[in-house]
Amino acid sequence: MTTTLALEDPRDPAVAAMIAELVIDLEDLYPEDEDDAPAPWTLDSLAAFGAFLVARIDGQPAACGGLAPMEGPQALEIVRMYVRPAHRGAGLADQILAALEAAARTKGAQTLLLRCGPRQPAALRVYERNGYVRRAAFAQHREHETNVFMEKGL
């Protein structure tokens, strides 16, 4: 198996299909969270920002994650972090996080923020293992039992 990790356009049809899987998974995990504020970014704006990573295994998208700008240039939000179920446990999330952190540094960020959820214990362990700590809600997000907010200083 050949694994590659590269910046890609999240609007690429195969990547967008993987992102759609993520959305369905989150809707299944958190059906009561349908009233959360909409994200201020789109796939178009993520593509324009130029910090969306895709891990491919034998040419097929296996995992992804991106950075979205926030108010102020020193903080970025990690968004659309996802590893397809067949590829979980192989370290792809750690690789994507490390690459996102490097990309954030090149963009001048001093802090990375993210939102996860309590029904994603494996994802929470990945973030904690990589130095992310819990914090209060930020930006458009709200305090809610389905939200866990984390940050890491770079």
From TrEMBL:
Domain of life, per UniProt, equals: Bacteria
- What's one Pfam family the UniProt record gives for this protein? Acetyltransf_1
**Residue ranges of domain N-acetyltransferase in the record:** 13-154
Q: Which UniProt keywords are present, listed alphabetically?
A: Acyltransferase, Transferase
Which residues are in coiled coils? Answer: none
A GO term for molecular function: acyltransferase activity, transferring groups other than amino-acyl groups
List the InterPro entries hit by this protein, alphabetically: Acyl_CoA_acyltransferase, Bact_Acetyltransf, GNAT_dom
This chain's protein is named: GNAT family N-acetyltransferase
- Originating organism: Phenylobacterium glaciei
